[in-house]
Design a protein that fits this description.
Layout (H helix, E strand, L loop, with lengths): L1 H32 L2 E5 L15 H10 L4 E3 L5 E3 L2 E7 L4 E6 L13 H14 L6 H4 L4 H6 L10 E3 L3 E5 L7 H5 L16 H4 L9 E6 L3 E6 L10 E5 L4 H9 L5 E3 L6 H6 L3 E14 L8 H21 L4 E3 L12 H12 L8 E7 L2 H17 L3 E7 L1 H4 L2 H4 L4 E7 L5 H7 L6 H11 L7 H9 L3 E13 L3 E3 L14 E2 L1
Parallel strand pairs: 1-10, 14-15, 14-16
Antiparallel strand pairs: 2-3, 4-5, 5-7, 6-7, 8-9, 9-10, 11-17, 12-16, 12-17, 13-17, 18-19
Length: about 500
């Protein structure tokens, strides 16, 4: 009898140990899966309705909780998101988006073609015209907008068999690329996004995350329940945190991601393997004044050569922040060594000294303040020329009469590796009459790369590249990988644990 009791107790003990071992394994796996990433932002507006008015980091929340028909990765490649295939017909007039079979809202219901069409209709009625130019080119879109949505008879947004057909007024070879903009991320009940704190629980989301909690201190995003992907289950976004506090919390492990940490920390973070550097798709160009009161040709060449010397020195001290343009208007053009060498030789032939005084105009930003101060100090220490700079607000910056009183104007520009047309369109404001004619001529061609215009701008030393900007990200020891999309938004679905 005693032997049976002993055996029974022993068997129960062994069984208990076996069960406990299973529980421990399960808990360990569960802990790894329920990973939460924390990152800090400055102010986050409670109104997330109008995407174009949001900061880059506020748009992170939009891109985490919403998907679009097509998206663009960090390399500028267009990828399917809600769509699985796009058929383009009639020379870029008609686009048919075949939807994926498994796309769902956060409540588990299927995303239907008519719901995407309704979203586009809502944008057409409510969004500012300047923000939705691509979809205003849809046949019947302007009539629909002018009628406040009552005239639906001509609108060429057509529901197909698990597809959406869009027909344009005129061909647009870049229509797909334009649809990757975050403003076209699919969202229901747009008005609720005006007060995200009050209505986040009532919204259904098209993305991989939902807004679970909103307070004055943080916004918590949680992975959609039905997703079993190996992505973080929770994203904690800390609001209204200064750069200094963010870094302090980063060092103590309370924050996992800090975008653009202080420059004095970069070398240390890199040495520790906690720094990632990405191209930011932004650049700095200069406009050299060539009007009657501006610089003559040889002076413009001398100024540009000197500024390149400044930037080379600046790069050595700030290599994480910039990449020298090396006479290239686009980052990918730096691969063309022959062109770089030709322009370098061309610029080296200087027949005139710098003017005694050079004046510079720039938009008043913290970045420009630092850069202009650096350039001014470099001129003082390395040349006989005095550089005098002025920082102005946006209205003053756009004043042509003011601009024409300065020798140099700094130009901040968004660069598109796959869309040279957009860049040269953005520069149109700075063209003289001859350059404007050349732009119009090349712009009328299909697939124009604007090489003639670019070479004219460079050879006349009128509008020239200085450097390309980088984005730096401090990551905690538990983060293995972080990525950004083409527009600079964090791709939370690609965050990986170590």
């Amino acid at each position: 009898m005693i032997k049976k009791i002993i055996l029974t107790v022993l068997g129960s003990t062994i069984l208990g140990l076996v069960l406990l071992s299973f529980i421990d394994v399960y808990q360990e796996q569960d802990t790894k899966e329920v990973s939460a990433f924390t990152y800090a932002l400055g102010n986050i507006n409670n109104d997330l309705r109008d995407v174009t008015n949001l900061s880059m980091r506020e748009k992170d929340i939009i891109t985490a909780t919403s998907k679009s028909l097509v998206s663009k990765n960090s390399d500028g490649k267009i990828e399917n998101e809600l769509s699985q295939e796009v058929k383009i017909k009639d020379d870029n007039i008609e686009y048919e988006f075949i939807l994926k079979d498994d796309i769902k809202w956060s409540d588990g219901t299927q995303i239907l073609p008519v719901q995407i069409i309704d979203f586009f209709k809502e944008l057409l009625i409510t969004e500012e015209e300047k923000n939705i130019e691509p979809i205003l080119n849809i046949y019947g879109a302007r009539e629909f907008r002018e009628s406040n949505g009552n005239d639906n008879s001509k609108l060429a947004l057509i529901e197909g068999d698990n597809s959406i057909i869009i027909r344009l007024n005129s061909k647009d070879k870049d229509f797909l690329e334009k649809l990757t903009n975050p403003v076209y991320k699919l969202r229901k009940n747009l008005d609720m996004w005006k007060d995200i704190k009050s209505y986040h629980d009532n919204i259904v989301y098209s993305g991989d995350y939902v807004i679970d909690t909103v307070s004055d201190e943080e916004i918590i995003l949680k992975r959609v329940n039905y997703l079993n992907e190996n992505i973080p289950q929770e994203i904690n976004v800390i609001r209204n945190m200064s750069e200094e506090v963010s870094m302090a919390k980063f060092e103590t492990g309370e924050v996992d991601v800090v975008v653009n940490p202080p420059s004095k920390q970069l070398n240390r973070l890199e040495a520790e393997g906690r720094l990632k550097t990405f191209n930011a798709n932004k650049g700095k160009y200069i406009y050299l004044n060539s009007n009657d009161k501006g610089l003559d040709f040889e002076s413009r060449k001398a100024v540009y050569k000197t500024l390149n010397n400044v930037i080379e020195t600046y790069h050595k001290e700030n290599e994480h922040y910039i990449e020298v343009a090396e006479y290239s208007y686009f980052l990918e053009d730096k691969k063309n060594l022959n062109s770089i060498q030709e322009r370098k030789v061309q610029t080296a032939k200087i027949n005139k000294e710098l003017p005694k005084i050079v004046t510079l105009l720039a938009l008043d930003t913290q970045e420009n303040r630092s850069l202009c101060a650096y350039i001014g100090e470099w001129f003082k220490n390395n040349t006989k020329t005095s550089l005098r700079y002025t920082l102005v607000n946006e209205d003053e910056y756009k004043n042509i009469a003011l601009r024409d009183r300065y020798d140099i104007t700094l130009i901040d520009i968004d660069l598109s590796a796959n869309n040279r047309e957009k860049t040269f369109c953005d520069l149109e404001y700075w063209y003289n009459d001859n350059e404007k004619k050349l732009f119009d001529k090349e712009n009328s061609k299909n697939n124009s790369e604007f090489r003639e215009l670019e070479n004219t701008l460079f050879s006349n030393y009128r509008i020239l590249p200085l450097f390309f900007e980088n984005k730096n990200v401090a990551i905690s020891n538990k983060v293995k990988e972080i990525n950004f999309d083409y527009y600079g938004n964090i791709q939370f679905t690609k965050l990986k644990n170590k």
